Amino acid sequence: MKSRFPMSGEVTCHTDEPREIHLKRQQSSMMRNLAKIPLFSLLLCFASICFLHAQTSSQPEVITIDANAPAHRFPHYWEQMFGSGRAILSLRESYRHDLREVKQATGFQFVRFHAIFHDEVGVYREDAAGHPIYNFSYVDQIYDGLLANQVKPFVELSFMPHQLASNPNAVHAFWYKQNVSPPKDYAKWDAMIAAFANHLIERYGIDEVSSWYFEVWNEPNIDFWVGEPKQATYWELYDHTARALKGVNSHLRVGGPATAQAAWVDAFIRHCAAQHVPVDFVSTHVYGNDLPQDVFGTSEPISREHMVCRAVKKVHDQIQASSNPTLPLIWSEYNASYKNEPEITDSTYMGPWLADTVRQCDGLVDVMSYWSFSDVFEEQGVVQTPFYGGYGLIAADGIPKPAYVAFELLHKLGDQRVTVDSDSALLTRREDGSLELALWNYGQPGKTASAKIFSLHFANTNVQRATVWRVDKDHSDARKTYKELGEPRYPTQEQIGQLRDAAALTPPSILTIQDQTMTVEVPAEGLAVIDLR
Fold first, then answer.
1. What band does 339 get if pLDDT is binned at 50, 70 and 90?
2. What pLDDT, on a 0 to 100 scale, did the predictor assign at position 275?
3. What distance in Å separates the CA atoms of residue 397 and residue 308, rounded to the nearest whole number?
C-alpha cells in the first residue's frame, strides 16, 4: 500500500522491513529536516504527517478463533420476519417480486404490514340501516399471495374502517390517509374481528391460522391513535380485540402493545394480568435514531449503533421482572433510521450496523422484524427515485441495496454462536461443523475512516481455506453505478439492468491460511463473512 506525502513523493514499504518501523523511519527523517523548511511548508508537512499517522497507525485487531471455545444456540431471530408497505400493496407484482427475492436470500417466514382494515381493502361497510356488511375478497387475495410464496401473515389489526370510526376526521398524515380513531361501537368492532377470524379459519384451517400472530393496532402511544387518554383507550381496544379473537378459537395468538419507542410494555403486562386479558406475546418498536428522552426518559447520549439493542434489553428486562416472564418478545419494527436518509438506509453503512445489531441483541429477543423488505412503499407518497432513503432492502425497479446483501451474507452464519473476544466479529458453527465468521468495520456516514486489519489466529481447528464474501463501497453497492449514470430519476431498462448487476453479490475471494494465521482487511462501512474450512 502507498500513502501520498507532499514533501517526499511516495512513501513505500520495503519488503525486508516491517511496515510500522518503515513509517517511523520515514517520519523521523522528515522531522530532522523540519528546521530547514519555511513556516508554511512546515505546517503542510506537519498536517501530512498527521494524516499519514491517522491512516496507518492503527494496529491490527488480533482475534483468536478457537473451535473449542464456549458456544450457545444461535437461532436466526433477525431474519424470521420483515415489515412491508401496507396491505393493499401486496397485490402488486413488484411487491411479490421483492418478497420472493428476500425469501430466497433469508428464508424468512412472516411479513407484517399496516391497514388490513383500510377502506381500500373493502372489509367493512354499513348499509343504510347501519348494519355491517363484510367483504373478504381482497383479504383472500392478499393472504393467498403470501402463502403461495411460503410466507405467513403477522396480522396487524389496523386501521379503523371509515364507517366504523368514532371520528371520521381522524385521518393520519400518511399518504394513504388511514383513520386512527377508536371504533364508534365496540359491539360492531368485536363482531368484525370475530367475522374476520372465522373467515380466515374457514379458508385456511385452524392449524394454519393458529401458526400466525395477531397484533392489536400500531404504535398507539403516538399519532397512530387518537383515543384519549391514549393508554386507557388502547387497553379498551386491546381487551375487546383479544377476547373477540379467543372467543373464535383459543389457539389464535394475540399480543401488543405494538408501541413506538419501546413504550408501555411493563404497564401492558400488568394490565393484562390484572384484568385477566389474554396475551400470547409482547411487541414493540424502536429505531436507531430515536431519542433517549423518548425511549429511556434520559438525556444520556446513545449512539445509533447502540440504541436498538439498548431498547431491546430494556423491554427484555421488563418482561423478565413481570408476572409473566416467559412471554415471547417480538420486535415488530426496527431500522437504523425512521427518516429518509440515503446515507444510512441506502448505503453500505447498513452492513456493519446490521451485523453489530445481531451481535448485541443475541439472547434478548425472540424475533426482530426489519422495517421493511421493499421500497414498494407509499407512506410518504409514490416513490420518485430509486435511492431516496427508503426503508426497504430492495429499491424501486427491484434493485438490491447493500442492506439486502448484508442480510444475504448474515444468512450464511451457523446456528451455534462460538465465543470470540471482539466487538467487531461474530463466530458461528454450522451443522456440518464448518465455521462462519462475520467481521465488520463500523464507520460513521459522511466521515472518512481507514480500513481495519484483523489478524486471525486459529486454535483447536485445522482450517485450510477461507472463502470471503463482502459488501462495502467496492462490492455490491449499486449507488456507485447510479452516480456514474448521472443519478437518473427514472432509469431506463438498460440502466436498471446495470444497477441490478452492480448490486448483486460479488463472487467471493479465496484466501489461503498459513501456519493457522490469516490477515483480513475490511474497509470502512464494510462487512465480510468468511467460510472457514
1. very high
2. 97
3. 30
Give the model confidence (pLDDT) of 267-289 as tens digits: 999 999 999 999 999 999 999 99
Give the separation between CA 272 and CA 289, rounded to whole angstroms. 30
Q: Is 446 left (phi over 0), alpha (psi -120 to 50) or beta?
A: left
Centroid of chain to Cα 153: 18
Give the percent of the chain with pLDDT over 90: 86
Residues with a known catalytic role: 219, 333
- Buried/exposed 98-129: b ≥16 CB within 10 Å, e otherwise: bbebbbebbebbbbbbbbbbbbebbbbeeeee
Q: 92, exposed or middle or buried, with CB in 10 Å at 0-12, 13-18, 19+?
A: middle
Exposure string (b/e) for 355-394, b if CB count within 10 Å is 16 or more? Answer: bbbbbbbbebbebbbbbbbbbbbebeeebeebbbbbbbbb
Q: Which pLDDT does position 51 carry in this prediction?
A: 41
The CA distance from 78 to 368, in Å, is 5
What's the one-letter identity of residue 22? H
Give tens-digit pLDDT for 220-263: 999 999 999 999 999 999 999 999 999 999 999 999 999 999 99
The gap from C-alpha 404 to its chain's centroid, in whole angstroms, comes to 10
Question: What is the SS3 assignment for 421-488?
Answer: CCCCEEEEECCCCCEEEEEEECCCCCCCCCCEEEEEEEECCCCCEEEEEEEECCECCHHHHHHHCCCC
Q: Measure the CA–CA gap between 117 and 137, rounded to whole angstroms.
A: 12
DSSP state of 284: E
Element (H, E) at 335: strand 329-335
- Please tell me the predicted confidence (pLDDT) of residue 444: 82
Give the per-residue pLDDT at 446. 73
**How much of the chain, in percent, has pLDDT values that exceed 70?**
89
**DSSP classification of residue 276:** T
Cell numbers found for residue 369:
422484524
User: Which cell numbers in the block locate residue 126?
Assistant: 354499513
DSSP 73-105: E---GGGSEEE-S-GGGGGSHHHHHHHHHHHHH
Query: To which residue does cell 452464519 refer?
Result: 413
CA–CA distance, 140 with 121 (Å, rounded to integer): 10
Angle at 236 between CA 332 and CA 298, to 5 degrees: 55
Task: Identify the band that residue 512 occupies on the pLDDT scale cut at 50, 70 and 90.
Answer: confident
Q: Looking at residue 96, what is its pLDDT?
A: 98
Q: Is the pLDDT of residue 8 over 70?
A: no
Closest CA to 521 of 413, 424, 414, 428: 424
Cis peptide before 523 (omega within 30 of 0): no
Cell of 7: 514533501
Residue 148 CB neighbours (<10 A): 11
